[in-house]
């Protein structure tokens, strides 16, 4: 009969389900965990919104793009409803670039239609200070007047500087302000299986 006493783990052993850190990073969500979180969030969106035909998923690049597309697939599978997906660059609407002396690096915007009378769900990978979401809301107004705006973040790491509410959260992760939190792809820039990593002591762009 097996020994039922708890076995102590050797020093440095990882707990079940915890990914092995690489280059000092800690994987806090693997691809399976991300997919489970997005499935749960899709169900929460369905429960909260009666008329899914009015939904408009708007991804904040770059990390929000694959997440919004997966959410759209999940919503279609759950409710048999095709959901519009757009991509909205927030760079020129950030209020902290001049202060930090950075030259803006523009990203793509692909908005297939206006947002008038739509329920817009902004989708981002990592939420922190709230400045990216605030910038996305400002940019959104150039495409019309939505009925309401909801926010999805795969990871909420805290450190809010603005009173921004995240409506749907995949995972809350306590971090230090100097830590880096990133959505990465295993086979390129957000390609292949995804994971969220924390790199201690980095200098992160406020999100």
Write down the CATH topology of the domain at 31-96 and 105-175. Rossmann fold
The count of helical stretches stands at 4
Which blocks of ≥5 consecutive residues have pLDDT under 50?
1-23
| CATH architectural category of the domain at 31-96 and 105-175 | 3-Layer(aba) Sandwich
From the alpha-carbon coordinates, what is the Rg to the nearest angstrom? 19 Å
The largest sheet has its strands arranged as: 3-2-4-5-6
CATH class of the domain at 31-96 and 105-175: Alpha Beta
Helical proportion, percent range: 10-25%
Share of β-strand residues: 15-25%
Structural class: alpha/beta
Query: Globular, elongated, flat, extended or rod-shaped: what is the shape?
Result: globular
Write down the oligomeric state. Answer: single chain
Mean pLDDT across the residues is 85
Q: Please outline the major beta sheet.
A: 5 strands, parallel
Number of strands: 8
Helix-strand pattern: EHEHEHEHEEEE
Distance between the termini: 53 Å
Question: Could you describe the 3D structure shown?
Answer:
There is one protein chain. With 207 residues, the chain is an alpha/beta fold. The chain has a domain at 31-96 and 105-175: Rossmann fold. Helix content is 23%, strand content 23%. It contains 4 helices and 8 strands. The chain has helices at residues 31-48, 64-79, 97-100, 131-140; strands at residues 26-29, 55-59, 84-87, 119-127, 148-156, 168-172, 180-185, 194-199. It has a 5-stranded parallel β-sheet, with helices on both faces. It has a 3-stranded antiparallel β-sheet with strand order 1-8-7. Strand 2, helix 2 and strand 3 form a beta-alpha-beta unit. It is globular and about 45 Å long. The N and C termini lie far apart (53 Å).
